[in-house]
Design goal:
99 residues, mainly alpha, Non-ribosomal Peptide Synthetase Peptidyl Carrier Protein, Chain A, 4 helices, globular
Length: 99
Amino acid sequence: MPGVDIQQIIFDALELTNHAREDHRQIVISESTLLFGNDGVLDSMELVGLLISIEEALLDEGIEVTLSDERAMSQSKSPFRSVTTLTNYIQDSINEPAS
């Protein structure tokens, strides 16, 4: 999986999200951006759209991963809290051996 910049894929997906938002609701894109939860910038529908965009971009790189699965939903701390936690979750998901 060398050459795949997961954080950049997330940033690109957030750019797409911004295209669908009004100017005053633009998301500031950085590794510390809070995505979902108490202080998150995304509602549940926007989160689903973001995850789909990320999954599609990863698939374009030859990486098949499902982000909104039981494993993600059952964690005590959501992997969707921030760009950093999502990057780490995706990295872990990719590195896990297939079951």
